[in-house]
C-alpha cells in the first residue's frame, strides 16, 4: 500500500478546469453559512482566484479543498469587511489518501464570506466581480480574462536575487514571458538566461520552488516544438532524461533563445536523425530507441498529451497460453494502419468516404489523443483523468481494464483506432497495476475495477511488459517496422500515398493545415484548437520517400536493452560504426582524399561508365576520344579516337566490351574497347544524339536526339539492327535525357523545355506527364516506384502524379550537371561551378557540401579541375569528371 506524504501546500493546478487560467492567491478567513440548516464554519486558508472558479484551500489538512464555480453564484457580490455571495454548488476535493473522485454538493444554499488577511479588500473585490461578470456574459472567458491579466503580468520583473553567481553574464539581455508546459497544465512565468543557468520564475506561488534553475551544462538536447498549432515551443532534454518544456509568446522569441543556446548545448539537427537511422539499420540501437527518437523529432513529447509519443500495437495473439515470437501470426500487419486491420470495418469506412464531401477522410477518430493516453495512464497518473473528466473517473465499463478486451475494441470498434504509448514497452508497470488502490468503480458484471487483466501468456505485469518489448525487438517486427514508420512519420502519412494505404484522417489533424495565428475570431480560434487537441494530431512528417528497412541482424546479435540502460546511455556514448555515415560527417574534411587525373581528355568529359569488376573507368569527351582509366593506379590505360565531333553519351551493350556511343555528328558508334575498333556506325538522325538507354533484357536500344525524335532499335550483342528502327514518338522539343526502370517496364523522356513523359515498354504508350518550371531536363532517375526529375537548378521527385521531394540549388553555385542516388537515402548533386551538395531524401534537407559554396563565397574563382560534368559512385569513392578533361577521385 502506498502512503501519500503531505506538503505544506495541497493545492495543484490539476484542480483547474481545462484551459482555465490561474490569476492570483491570497490568505484569508473564509466563513461558510448553510442557509438551509443555519450552521456555519470559519476556516483560515488560501483562496486561489482562477478564471472559472474560486478554489479554497483550508489550512487544516484533514479538510477537503473546495471549488466554487462563478456560474453557480446566485447573488450579486457584496463588500463590507468581507466579500460575500451565495452559491448553489460546492465541489470538494479530498486530499487525504489516494486521489479520488470529487464530491459534488448540489442543491445547496451556502453563503460564502471571504475576508482577506493581507490584501486590499477593494482590489480583490473588483477583480472577483469583474471575473464573475465575464463568466456570466462572455463566451470566450479565457480570452477576456487574458486581457484583464496581461497588463498586470507585464509589470512583473525577474528577481535578480535568484542568480547564483555575480560572474554569470546574461545570454539574452531581456527577460521573457513564457509558459512552462506539463501534461494538462501550464505555468506562466519569466525566463532569464545567463551563460551558466536558465532561470524560470513562476508568476504565482503554485509550486514549492520559487524559481526553477536549469544548469546549461546539464542540457543534453534542444528541440523546437509546435505547440497549440504554432511554432513557439522549446523542449529541453536533460542528461538525466527529464524534460522541461517552454512555450513562448511568439516564434521570434523562441528562435532568439534557441540561437542563444547554440554552441552551448547539443542542437538536435536533422543530420542527427540520419545518424540514428543508420544506427538503427545497422543494429547498433534498438527499435524502441529509434522510435523514441522519431517521436522526439516528430514533435511528440510526454509533456504535451495532445502530441504524446506514439508506438505501434504489435501483438495480436491474446488467446494462447504461451507467446510464440517466431510465429508471424503473433504479430499485427505493420503495413496497415489500425483502421485497415479489420476488412469489414474498413469497407464501411470506404463507403462513408465515397459519399463524403471534400475534404474527405476515412477515420473520424485518431490513433493518438489525450483521452487515449489518459485512459492508459489512469492508474499511474489519476490526476490526469480527474482533471479531464471534471473530477470523475470514467465509467467503470469504459476504463482500460483488460489487454485482450482493449485489443478487441481496437480491432472492431469504428470509434477506437488506438496505437500504443511507450509505457507498453518500458519497465514501470504502475500503469497496469492499481498500486494506489484507486476506487475505479464497479462494472455492470459487479466486478470491481482493479489491476489490468493480462493475457494468458503473461503471469504478471512485469512479464507482460518484458514480452511486449521482446516482440517489439523481434526479427519479424524489425523486418517490418519501416512500413509502420512510413504510415506514421513518412511518405504514406498524407497525400495520394495515404489514400492508397487507407491512412486518411481528418484534415485538421495534419501539421500546417491551419495557421492558427491567422485566425482573428477568438471563438473560431478556440474551437479549432479544442477540436485538434481533443481528436488528435499527426506527428510532423519526417520522411518524404520510403523508409529503408533494417539490415539483417548477425546471428546471435542482441540489441535489447532495458529502458534504464537507455536512459543512462548518452548519444555520444553509442558505439557508432562510421562506415555508411560519410555524408553525415561532411565537416570532417580530413576523411576525404582527392586524387586528380589531370587532362585525361583535352576538353570537356561528357559521359562515363564505371566497370566495377575491372576497377576501370570508361570516359568520352568533347575531343571525340574514348579513354579507359585505371581507378587504382590513377592512370590512362587506353585512348581511342572515335569521332571528329563531340561524343555525347555512352551505354554498355555487352559487359566490359561493347559500347554504344552517341555523337554530335548525328551518329551512334558501336565500339569494342578490347580491340579498340568500331564495330558499327549508325546514321539515322538529323541532329546530335543526346541520350541512349539500353534495355538489356529486351535487347532494345532507345535513342533521343536534338532532332526531336524518340526511336527504338533491336540489338544483338555486337551491333544495332538498323532495319528494326521504329519511331516511338515525334517530340515537340529537343530530347535531353532518357531513363529506364530496373525491370525495363517503363522509360522516362525529358526535353529542353522541362517536360517529362513516362512511357510503358509493353505497349509504348504514354503513362504520365510532369513539368519542372521550364528548366531544361538534365537527368532522370527512377527510384523504386518514383521518378527523380533534375533541371538546371531544381530536383523534384514524383510518385504517379504527386510530388514527393523538391530541392533547389542556389544559382550562385552553378547549373546542375549530374545527380546520383546513394544507398537509397542520399542525393549527390554536382554543378559546373565545382559545387557538390549532399541531400537527405528521407528528410528532404541538405546535409552539407564538398569543395566550395559559391552562395556564401560568390567572388571565388572556380578551380578548373572542379568544373564538374559527370559523377559516378564506386566502392568508397566518388568519381567526378571535369569540364577541362580532368578526373577527380574523392576517396573516403
From TrEMBL:
Domain (BEACH-type PH): residue spans on this chain: 167-262
InterPro entries listed in its UniProt record: BEACH_dom (IPR000409), BEACH_Domain (IPR050865), FAN-like_PH (IPR057496), PH-BEACH_dom (IPR023362), WD40_rpt (IPR001680)
Keywords: Repeat, WD repeat
Start and end residues of each BEACH domain: 265-550
A Pfam entry, by short name: PH_FAN
Listed PANTHER family: BEIGE/BEACH-RELATED, PROTEIN FAN
Entry protein name: Uncharacterized protein
Lineage: Eukaryota, Sar, Alveolata, Ciliophora, Intramacronucleata
